[in-house]
Design goal:
This protein is α+β, with helices and mostly antiparallel strands and about 160 residues long. The chain is built from three helices and eight strands.
Length: about 160
């Protein structure tokens, strides 16, 4: 957004306030700045061009667990959930590895992998695998990269 007009005023309390109109004809106002420079910085920060943002959704099968700004944070959430909160997963892993007593189950590794076909792309899900008795099993936990668009783009519809 471009600023069409901004008015900076020094009020009776000694603080600065600003009123401005953007190219979209919306009027905006802010007050309580100690200096004019603070008021100008506020206007400048309010009109920065927004860009699409990449976020990461931690998932358990089709159930969203949370959204994060880094893949590592989403992985940490999903992995914690798998290790400590998903008793059905632990039972399933014991069955798959022919371990009759769940208490005897030892997961020797938790690893995150992208599909082999994905290459360097950032838009493929990352999947969590558990290694038990030398065998690797998919857990159903994934981290899905998502792009949050700034605006609707009808050309992006597939």
């Amino acid at each position: 957004m471009q600023v069409d007009h901004a008015v900076y005023e020094h009020d009776d309390s000694g603080q600065w306030r600003v009123r401005w109109t953007g190219a979209d004809d919306h009027r905006r106002a802010a007050k309580g700045f100690q200096t004019r420079a603070e008021a100008e910085a506020h206007v400048a920060g309010s009109v920065l061009t927004a860009t699409d943002t990449l976020v990461y959704r931690a998932m358990d099968q089709d159930v969203p667990l949370g959204l994060y700004t880094t893949a590592r944070a989403a992985q940490a959430h999903a992995e914690h959930h798998a290790r400590h909160l998903d008793s059905d997963l632990i039972k399933w892993l014991a069955e798959q590895a022919d371990i009759p007593n769940v208490d005897d189950l030892t997961v020797t590794a938790w690893t995150w992998e992208r599909p082999e076909t994905s290459g360097p792309s950032n838009d493929e899900p990352i999947s969590l695998y558990a290694t038990v008795a030398g065998e690797e099993y998919g857990t159903g936990y994934t981290v899905l990269p998502l792009t949050l668009a700034v605006a609707y783009d009808p050309k992006a519809e597939g």
